[in-house]
Amino acid sequence: QVQLVESGGGLVQPGGSLRLSCVASGSIFSNYAMGWYRQAPDKQRELVAAITKGGSTKYADSVKGRFTISRDNAKNTVYLQMNSLKSEDTAVYYCHSEMTGWGYPRGIDGSWGQGTQVTVSS
User: In whole angstroms, what separates CA 50 from the centre of its chain?
Assistant: First the structure.
């Protein structure tokens, strides 16, 4: 079982940037598909960005062109670079790992981090 610890959240003004990090331990990180999800108050958790173990990526339409997901297998870490942040990006962001072969995480099985709060406000 993978343990995930997120960091990097905080308060940022609209138009600003943040980089979230998620460090994994307890298993072979490179075998896992990874994803960043978010949940705003009174909303369902949604996929923000995902990366396969082979490095393919996909994004929610609302963040395309602004967010970038990447992974460093040597550091057991997945990142989410968030630029041009908007108030609607405010949410708790969760890291997720799932063993899906060469596919994307599905958000069904696997492990979740504890979440990190991102607040975009002036």
Answer: 7
